[in-house]
Amino acid sequence: MREAGVSVGLILLPGNAESPMNYTDNTYRFRQDSAFLYCFGLAEPDMAATIDVASGRTTLYADELTVDMLVWTGPRLGVAALAAACAADDVQPSAALPCTLRAAAARDGLPLFLPPYRGETCLRLAAWLDVPAAMLADKASLPLIKAMIALRQIKEEREVEQIEQAVNTTIAMHRAVMALGTPGRSEAALMAEATRVALAGGGMPSFPPIATVRGAVLHNHGYPGYLRSGDLFLLDAGAETVMGYAGDLTTTFPVDGKYSPQQRAIYEIVLAAGKAAAGLLKPGLPFKEAHFAAARTIVEGLQALGLMSGPLDEIIAAGAHALFFPHGLGHQMGLDVHDMESLGEAQVGYDGQPKSTQFGLKSLRLAKPLLAGMVLTIEPGIYFIEGLIALWRAEGRFKQYIHYDRLEPWLQAGGYRNEENWLIRADGAHLLGARFDKSVAGMETALAGRRS
Length: 452
Hints:
Layout: E1 10-14, E2 20-23, E3 26-27, H1 34-40, E4 48-52, E5 58-61, H2 67-73, H3 79-85, E6 90-92, H4 97-108, H5 119-129, H6 136-139, H7 142-152, H8 157-180, H9 187-200, E7 204-205, E8 210-212, E9 232-237, E10 239-240, E11 249-254, H10 261-278, H11 287-304, H12 312-318, H13 345-348, E12 375-378, E13 381-383, H14 386-395, E14 415-417, E15 420-425, E16 428-431, H15 440-448
Parallel strand pairs: 5-6
Antiparallel strand pairs: 1-4, 2-3, 4-5, 7-10, 8-9, 9-11, 12-15, 13-14, 15-16
């Protein structure tokens, strides 16, 4: 913080509280705030901490276990042990926090805090700081946001070990789903299998799995469908370790066990796009360049199939390829599957530089130069989104590049995405996780031994 010109002030880092699903005692699975978890390593609810910028003194705010809590939720560490576990200099009851914050505000100005993203946290901050909830995002500390990004975007070796563990469990999730993904199975059963493997690995899913035969719906979290002969199944799922680190992979496989010629053609373009992007990864590379490398490979592949034509650079600059590739190439990954996204894309992904408003490119979460120690995803895709195709065709959008009259036979192809997790190193990049052969031959070999 001092490097950012902040020499006095009180940093406030609230942990998360339990979040009721439909009444107080029926809560969603608890997940600690990632900034609090990173700084203090405590995964219990209803805590907060402050750090005095001038002295570096850290105070944990937590309450002792009550008799009712002991009966209903079981024993846990006492507050002194919690403070010792996170090396806090002091521990105070939660009721002392508002007074501490008022005194700090009178002395040094508004305490420094990160943008809140949960309603419960917004309400607590509004009450503690006497700031209207609607103004909290504007009052969040930009120097603190930048400092937190600088800390968290470079992974220590022990963090990389956790992420690799998460990725390996994620690979096991995908292999298990492939083994069951035969005609007649339900999407819900395959989602349940992915979740089972994540739990068996000692953690949880890092986000609600996307497990669907409707791969052209990018974030499809419903599971009403059944697998039929001729379908492709898309699984976008990841595991989270006990310490909270995430994996995130996407696999697209044929329900019948073999890709049709049409499916194979599109799938191999997606693989080539990922390879083109990954081959560029190194410190100093603006990630936007990797995104454009994937986009160019996709356009070249679609041109070879007769679905697009025209000058390659012109197509990319215009954004015509976004009909088929309407999202960004990837995102950072760590304690959040989309790491630090709550801190705002403007700083996390762009270092404060302007972001494009162009369709497709505006969804690129990460564009800034890469640094050694970053962990990120590479996840190109090709999608035949019927509603979007119909809309663009009716508008005549990019008709000089897109052969709409040739797309009809491809609409049943749906969506294809392949996602891998990469660590940026000083000498390039390293693919995380155990070997997982995503080639057509590798996938078909893995699918060959399944039972119906």
